[in-house]
Amino acid sequence: MKIIAMIPARMGSKRIPKKNIRLLAGKPLLQYAIENAVNSGAFDEVWVNSESEVIGELAKCCGVGFHKRPAELSGERATNNDFTREFLECHECDYLVMLNPTSPLIFPETVADFVSFVRDGKYDTVLSVVEEYAECFFCGKPINFSVDGKVNSQDLVPVVKVVWALTAWKRETFLRYASLGRCATFSGELGFFPIPFDQAVDIDTEAQWKLAEGILLARKMDNGGAEYWGEK
Amino acid sequence: MKIIAMIPARMGSKRIPKKNIRLLAGKPLLQYAIENAVNSGAFDEVWVNSESEVIGELAKCCGVGFHKRPAELSGERATNNDFTREFLECHECDYLVMLNPTSPLIFPETVADFVSFVRDGKYDTVLSVVEEYAECFFCGKPINFSVDGKVNSQDLVPVVKVVWALTAWKRETFLRYASLGRCATFSGELGFFPIPFDQAVDIDTEAQWKLAEGILLARKMDNGGAEYWGEK
Q1: What local confidence, expressed as pLDDT, does residue A12 receive?
Q2: Least confident span in A120-129, B119-128, B133-142, B214-223
Q3: Do B162 and A135 touch (CB under 8 A)?
Q4: What's the per-residue H, E or C state across chain A?
Q5: pLDDT tens digit string along B154-200?
Q6: Is the separation of the CB atoms in A96 and A6 below 8 Å?
Q7: A83: which chain B residues are within 8 Å (Cβ-Cβ)?
Q8: Are residues B207 and A196, on separate chains, in Cβ contact within 8 Å?
Q9: What integer pLDDT is reported at residue B21 of this predicted model?
Q10: I need a surface site. Which of A125, A133, B117, B119 has the fewest CB within 10 A?
């Protein structure tokens, strides 16, 4: 079974300009996704999908492939459906795994576990999710609990939140849906792969950029011993 | 209208031992909630509710009141319903706001805004929530989107997640529900107050403790200018 990685990375990001080549804790944001893909050891090929030659340059520096997407798919309006279809039409594989560069905090081990789950072949689409063990409402109505009693959060049935850090598609199913004009993003049988919330942080704003830098910093920090008030 | 703050803080925390007096970035965890309550300028009184004399000592050091809960409400099994009822029976007020010490990252300004919302008096219970603008599933079924089309996350109707950083109860309604043996935690008309996700982090595990330290660190960091790959 051939499983390849695709990392979509435009130069023209809007909320955080040029975020893919901006340095996060000293390293371009995009490089995290590239290294996570490579270090997972789970892929037959790793590709960066971009319209930008500069980003292509960075991909090559990191030793992975550069798929230059056509100009008409490089704008704000290009959907995931569109550029993934174009990519899949150019690259043979059984499954494609998309790593989102805006989720740099994931661990290579998590990527490897995700790919093992995909490799089982039970699903056409596999979504990375965070399980929310918390009382949730939708349009004012409780989803996973009753207001008639309070239960411990860990005993709730979790609401499952899609995080787009990792997404896998069976090539054949995706292209069939796309050719029928159907939404291929959620094509066929859906599987869910839970990942820890601190690996799922998605960088879309300056506040999240700062948060991610804090988490990276905290990971490097010495754990030390716990200290307590009033004790020396 | 009299609005008072209660900060529940046991000594016998389980997953993180003695977490309330453990130093987080140099300051006891409990002190964050105390300072957030005091610095919000929004409360007529601020109380720490605990069975522990040591925690009482810390409360007094910080210049706030110490409500010593009875021994029978100090165990693992004591519910929020139970100790809040006992507290409310001892303290007159219109609304009680509970600040959770395991959410130290909230800003005093957010606490002040929350109390203004409570003061409007439209609700019996006000819950702090994080709005999740993401595709969510419950028991495998989509909650807030359709798999027939992908829309931008910011255009979704959010799923609303209760975070327990801040909770407000109208005293009268709470005590009426409690005296009828009903669940007072969700008593009467429910209101929702959204807070930013990075202020909502709940510390329940060592991993979350470390995450919170990272965020506190990042907040202190100089923003500096953005730097980019290939530019000097």
Answers
A1: 83
A2: B214-223
A3: yes
A4: CCEEEEEECCCCCCCCCCHHHEEECCEEHHHHHHHHHHHHCCCCEEEEEECCHHHHHHHHHCCCEEEECCHHHCCCCCCHHHHHHHHHHHCCCCEEEEECCCCCCCCHHHHHHHHHHHHCCCCCEEEEEEEECCCEEECCEECCCCCCCCCCHHHCCCEEEEEEEEEEEEHHHHHHHHHCCCCHHHCCCEEEEECCHHHCCCCCCHHHHHHHHHHHHHHHCCCCCCCECCCC
A5: 899 999 999 999 999 999 999 999 999 999 999 999 999 999 988 99
A6: yes
A7: none
A8: yes
A9: 97
A10: B119
Higher pLDDT, B47 or A121: B47
Option in A18, A163, A218 nearest B217 (CB)? A218
Q: What is the pLDDT of residue A223?
A: 66
A156 lies within 8 A of chain B by CB: no
Residue A104 contacts residue A20 (beta carbons within 8 Å):
no
The verdict on B155 touching A (C-beta cutoff 8 Å) is: no
Across the interface, of B136, B148, B218, the residue whose CB is closest to A213 is B218
β-sheet bridge partners, residue B129: B162, B194
Mutate to test the interface with A, among B19, B34, B128, B138 (most CBs of A within 10 A): B138
State pTM to two decimals: 0.93
- The ipTM estimated for the assembled molecules is 0.94
Asked if residues A163 and B134 have their Cβ atoms less than 8 Å apart, the reply is: yes
Cβ within 8 Å of B, A 21-80: 21-23, 28, 31, 54, 57-58, 79-80
Q: Which residues of B touch A214 (CB under 8 A)?
A: 214-219, 221
User: Does the distance separating the beta carbons of B214 and A215 come in below 8 Å?
Assistant: yes
Q: Nearest-CA neighbor of A118 among A101, A143, A98, A134?
A: A98
CB within 8 Å: B138 and A157: yes
User: What does the pLDDT read at residue A198?
Assistant: 87
Angle between helices B108-119 and B29-40 (to 10 degrees): 50
Residue among A147, A207, A216 whose CB faces B186 most closely: A147
A18-34 tens-digit pLDDT: 999 999 989 999 999 99
In chain A, what are the domains? 3-126+162-220 (3.90.550.10)
* CB-CB under 8 Å, B227 with A22: yes
CB under 8 Å to A12, separation ≥6 — which residues? A74, A75, A76
